[in-house]
Design goal:
269 residues; alpha/beta; 23% strand; elongated
Length: 269
């Protein structure tokens, strides 16, 4: 498993684009509908410009994108390292890079949000290796790790509860294609969910059929300890997971307490 993150590993592939004759009124409507503040302008699969909310704010009102779009667009190769892409964005003061393939065709877009996400996900390979080594020690197996999509209906959850606020955050990420892979152990014909219950439940509720996962295949059919614990808790399907809405996820709780502390200082507390 390579630790070198590439642009193609984190970019959004389903890019919303506009054409040079799209009206500025349509751009504003699109921004409201999608929450995005900029779009590549494409012609025959090739990026010919970029239009952003900044263009709409500082330039005189015009009818079409062609009259306000930036034509000097910096693009990234999909095989570029994420660190190099981050350096380019930082030094040029831009928040997004259209991504192209060898033929110069648009294949994705990488944003500063994706850069932040890549840093948050750095622990994922460590987590995968941790679970792999744990399985080796506990069961004397020699697992193989691969990244693949897993049918959600075949996942066996092992966690009985999730937090409603974290579930909301994961739903937001999934809608924007930002969620990191889950970690799953394959034993026999079962896929036992080890890490990623919020992501999986959010995907399930959104109607997704598959989920991106790191699969640790132990190549044996054995009942894991976490499955036995799930049995005791009556957790067999995603519908058995309880969503806690009267308590906050620990990360959110810390953030809230900091906000309260800051508010208290302002009020002289």
């Amino acid at each position: 498993m390579s630790n070198k993150a590439l642009v193609k590993d984190y970019m959004t592939r389903d890019v919303i684009t506009v054409s040079s004759d799209t009206s500025t009124a349509e751009i504003i409507k699109l921004m409201k509908e999608t929450g995005h503040d900029g779009f590549p302008v494409k012609d025959n699969g090739t990026v010919i410009g970029m239009v952003t909310a900044f263009d709409l704010l500082i330039k005189p009102w015009v009818k079409t994108v062609s009259e306000i779009m930036s034509r000097d667009v910096v693009v990234a190769d999909q095989d570029m390292s994420l660190n190099d892409a981050a350096r380019v964005m930082f030094r040029m003061g831009i928040s997004r890079l259209p991504v192209i393939d060898k033929e110069g065709k648009l294949v994705g877009i990488i944003t500063n949000t994706d850069i932040v996400r890549s840093h948050i996900e750095r622990s994922t390979p460590m987590k995968v290796n941790y679970f792999k080594k744990t399985l080796e020690q506990l069961y004397g197996v020699k697992p193989e790790v691969k990244r693949m999509t897993v049918p959600i209906e075949k996942l066996r959850p092992t966690q009985s509860k999730v937090y409603a606020d974290e579930l909301q955050g994961r739903t937001y990420e999934i809608k924007r294609g930002l969620a990191e892979p889950t970690i799953v152990v394959k034993t026999g014909d079962r896929y036992v969910l080890v890490d990623g219950h919020h992501r999986t439940l959010a995907s399930y509720r959104l109607g997704c059929k598959e989920i991106d996962s790191y699969v640790i295949d132990i190549k044996k059919d054995m009942k894991l300890g976490m499955e036995k614990t799930a049995d005791l808790n009556g957790v067999y399907t995603l519908d058995d997971i309880e969503v806690i809405d009267d308590a906050q996820h620990p990360l959110i709780a810390i953030t809230t307490s900091m906000r309260k502390a800051m508010a208290g200082k302002k009020n002289g507390g």
